[in-house]
Amino acid sequence: MQTLIEDIQFAYRSFMKTPAVCALIVTTLALGIGANAAIFNVVYNVLVAPLPFSGGERLVKINTNKPKINRNDVQVSVPTMLDYRQKNEHLSHLVEYHQMSFTLLGHGDPKSLKTGTVSWDYFEMLNVKPILGRTFLPGEDKQGARPLIVLSHHYWREMFGSDPDIIGTSLQMNNKAHQVIGVLPPMAAYPVKNDIWVTAPSCPVRGSSNAINDRSRTMLTLYGKLKANSSLAKASLELNNISKHLIAEYPDVYPENQGLSNTLIPLKTEMAAQSGPTFYLLMAITALVLLIACANVANLNLVRTANRKQEFAIREALGANPRRIARQVLTESILLSLTGGLLGLIIAIFTNDLLAGFAAHYTSLASEVKINWSVFVFCLVISMLTGVISGATAAFQKRHINESLKEGSGNITASGASNRLRKVLLIIQFSLAFIVITSATLVSLSLYRLNNQDTGFNSSEIVALQMGPGASNDTVKQWHYFARETAHRLERKAEIEQVAFSTTFPMTEGRRQLSFFQIEGRPPIDSSERPDALRAVVSPNYHQVLAIPLLQGRYLQESDDENNPGSILINKRFAELFFAAENPIDKRISLDKGKTWLSVRGVVADTREMGVDIAPVPTFYSTFIEYTRWSWIKMLIRTKVPLNTISTSITDAIHEINPQQAVQGITTLKTLKDESLSSANLVGQLVTMFAVLAFAIALSGVVGIVAYNVSQRRKEIGIRVALGANPKRIRMLFAVQGMSLCAIGIAIGAFIMVFISPMLARVLFETQALNLSMYLITGTAISLFAALAILLPVKQATAVQPSHALREQ
Description:
By secondary structure, this protein is of the alpha+beta class. The protein folds into 3 domains: 2-47 and 280-451 and 678-808, no CATH class; 57-272, no CATH class; 473-659, no CATH class. It contains 24 helices and 24 strands. The strands form 3 sheets. Strands 15, 16, 17, 18, 19, 20, 21 and 22 form an 8-stranded mixed sheet that branches. A 6-stranded mixed β-barrel has the order 4-5-10-7-9-8. Helix 2 (19-48) crosses helix 11. Belongs to the ABC-4 integral membrane protein family. Keywords: Cell membrane, Membrane, Transmembrane, Transmembrane helix. It is found in: Cell membrane.
């Protein structure tokens, strides 16, 4: 122990002799370890750590599929859910979930609340205990049960100011009193963040006799919990056997040519599915940054050791044990690494909330991203490994005592092995920097193309808002009539040009997929061979408001929604696939096996209805007259003035028609587009930031090593200049030596990129990962900066008078 204390004391004195180099080592490690610790904390909590629910490893999402028509994770009906629940023996819980909108009245303006509708044992399955009151009890999800509400923690805090006496309060929801029975603790929201939770009878759709009895009325997502002695394979097999019996018993509802199967996915896997590729990419990038930092630190330690070569030779000559000297060097390296690791941990702590906010774009598990013991262990392990490896590299370099002593007070020239090792480390830094910077450049190019992608419609000056089915609209027909009257009322305002409405906003994945359609005069298309086609339910003027070009025929008209039902538009992609050799105008399609027919009135240009990053798919547009389901109404308002000057006027106009109607999310269509891309843009910013960090670390290493090499050869440079050598030739000599290492590193990095590109391609949009022109541009940029880093210290050395350089020796 006393020896260790002496080593630490001596190390401190050694650090004071070279503060600049030591500060550079600590800073480099702090940035490298800090970036890795921060990303590791997110990856560990989201992708590795167990779910924050008791027995979370047994929680599953039950995906119901129609494999013969490539339909995965479809919703199921209430009767189907009951069959699965009652006939399975491997799940201790099988619960339903769907989201709806409730309108809260009596608390200021009507408010639309995101509502999770669940089975009574949903929270029992998760083993979530309320902080106030209770959750649902058996029987409270049966038809006729009294309407009850469990508040989410965030809504209780924001809406009711964390009122401890909220239990028993009656809230007016959709013109019906609901009693608050409990408040949930803060928890990972899944599938989405909800304001309140209710059981089936509270939902007017789920609680209707139609939903309860109609097997074709699909609206539920299923979750379950495996029994302690069961497994995913056993439970899946059992549910699939139940599905086979359903196909045999109800062939009209579950057609044989569509299939019906079930896949059980661990809930942890499901909750982390969207975030995995992105977080692994960031982890890989930061790992490369850390490797560059480690190579840089190893090089700097070699420089420190080389500068102390004479000191170590004298100590050995006086009888010091070489192992004792090696241990001292190793101690100093570990101390520097631990200091860098400590600063890195501080960086990770301060960036935790920032990265948790970033993770929230991908998964509700972001609420669990907290600094815990795993981050401390990560920083400690990485620091120790870095310190030991870089220290050992320097500590066990061969030292020749006689040669070191002969060099006297002159420059201490490093051994050939040390020089070769430093060159290898520089090559490693260049190759890793090339990989990081090229990856970041490709991601940035991908994001540029994504942000500038033509969506097929004009989103400028479009105000967007949404309304859930109102409390006073008793039927779907009344709800659609209200939407039409609202649009007409708004169009009378001078600041508004046109108003359209739809069941979903463009650039979202809310369009309804078709399970069957038939073209008149042709045999039904085999379900297993039919391409995907989407149905968009819109007002007749939808395409004019969004300035979507008409290619053939005519647009929809108001008369199509009233006196001439059955009119539709198709997009260009639909026409190319299904009417390639004929004129599609006035052709008819059926969605119900020929019972009713819809006539094609026009062909419009393709748009990116499903998302900016999803290519146009075959789509047809129908009016609300053919749509018989409850749905949200999305208003699209083309205005003549900015949003902030008209939002209140829009809300007032809606409330003039229906004072109880909640209006949600008044924004612009451009903002919705930007928000849909915000996650991708954040990834790009993080990747770019890490790439800049990696390049800065690599360049600092280049500058440091070149400056050291130049300082060791100042006498040689002085002699060369004194004998008449051209300074430019001398600078070129150093440049060739340095740039050859850079070229080798870039070549190795490009070779590695060939193998990395398939993985990188998964996160790129319309951008080739194996992009030779981009490799050339990146390599050229790195070479230019490297040349500057090499030539600056060389130029300073050659500018010194030869007599001064010789006297310094």
